[in-house]
Amino acid sequence: MSSEANEKELLKPFSTMQLLNFCLGFFGLQFAWQMRIILSAPVTENLGASPLIFGLIWLAGPITGMVVQPIIGGLSDKTHTILGKRRPYLLLGAIFASLALWAFPNSADIAQKLADLLHIPLPAFGGLIIAAIMIWVIDACVNAAQGPYRALIPDLVPPQQHSLANAYLSFAIGLGSVVAAGTAPFLKYVCNYQMSINAQFIMAALAFSLAMLWTCITIKEHKYNKQNIINNDEIKKDDIPFIKKVINFFKTSPEVGKICTLQLFTWIGIMSLNIFFTQYATHTVFGIPDLTTATDEVKNSYIHLMNKATNFSSICFAIQNLICFLVSIPIGLLSTKFGNKRVHLISLITLSLTFIGMGLYKEPGFVLFCMAIAGIGWASILALPFAMLSEFIQKGSEGSVMGIFNIFIAGPQVLVCTVLAWFINQCSYEFQSGINYHWEYAFFIGAITLIVAAIITHFINEKK
């Protein structure tokens, strides 16, 4: 029997409690990421970022995803330390991301202190430059942790539980997002206490670092002895160039290319929501004009309404992710029974309809309802494409494969951050003695790409 077969035979099924414990670190990771999604717009807009500049700052996510995840994924395949293969990257990513999460909302103060220390005038947009750097650090560290974390599933979980394990990660993502997005609105509406943006980022930093530390302590990775490494052709040839790894990845099966194309169109759609929803809620739903060039007096006059709009955005993300949290495990069970393809196809169609609804009708109650329904598609996106891909991963290349696959998540975001951000930047109109932008256009474009993704899903042939 081959070493690969021996290793698969040694993988014992995870119990429900083990799966819940396994996904706790991802809870912390998503907690931090959700806070960055919701609150990066108010911070950068206050520092003078236009829609295009904001989109360019968001490039940190996809670029670090395309560069960091494949590199870290490949390195983690070859890493053998007392902490294991994946855990060093989980721990270091969480620590450095937590420091950047603390610094990000304080970017203006940090820029001023640096200028005073260097005895130079504060450069124009100095705070925005520091904020952009912190965003890049956060995104790079999240990506450095996320790829190896995903690779733990084929490392430790038996193949028959891959769909369920990915569903539990969706469960953790949903729960982390709900708690992150819902805490400030809950304190406001129940306790009449408005949590500051700074406090929310500190909360995110603590959640990420402590949850990932717990994972690193409680998850035990398998020890690979030298004989297994030598006998395994995939690991033995792990030093081949990255381009060859990509070519070999696509040679695995024709279905791999379909799954990657599916991800490409899916993530154009989903990032149209994640990147621009807070501005849509602020400027379209609540009717606040663009404040990037406004005076401090004008900005102060909108503070109360801005807090209301930001809380509404947080509630929408909380409801979306609450539904994701509730349906993630049922989706995993349904996909086990009916197949990943069928369940994912229905989820994508449902999600595209919610995008169209929000673009056409901007009443807060209806928007909240659409975001709730969008949670179903979000849960499917976070689990089923990874489960479909897991059927074609060869043993010993898990980290590299997840890193390569992430290119088709990160790459589409580049288009959203540049082309779509530029398009919205061109779609301004006069509004309340100022200007505003058609943020809802992002949802129409996202709906089109999600429909294309659903069509591609239909033609994927799953393994029986």
The number of helical elements comes to 21
Name of the CATH superfamily: MFS general substrate transporter like domains
Which shape, going by the Cα principal axes? globular
Distance between the termini: 23 Å
Could you give the order of the helices and strands? HHHHHHHHHHHHHHHHHHHHEEH
Overall CATH class: Mainly Alpha
- Class from secondary-structure proportions: mainly alpha
Mind telling me which CATH architecture this is? Up-down Bundle
What count of structural domains? 1
Assembly annotation? single chain
List low-pLDDT spans.
1-5, 225-238
Description:
The longest helix has 36 residues, at 303-338. Strand 1 and strand 2 form a beta hairpin. The protein has one domain (11-458): MFS general substrate transporter like domains (Growth Hormone, Chain: A), CATH 1.20.1250.20. It has helices spanning 3-10, 16-22, 24-46, 51-58, 60-78, 87-103, 107-118, 126-156, 162-191, 197-218, 226-231, 233-236, 242-251, 254-285, 296-301, 303-338, 340-360, 364-381, 384-390, 398-426, 441-458; strands spanning 428-431, 434-437. It starts with a helix and ends in a 6-residue tail after the last helix. It has 21 helices and two strands. It is globular. Strands 1-2 form a two-stranded antiparallel ribbon. It is mostly helical and 464 residues long. Residues 1-5 and 225-238 have low confidence and may be disordered.
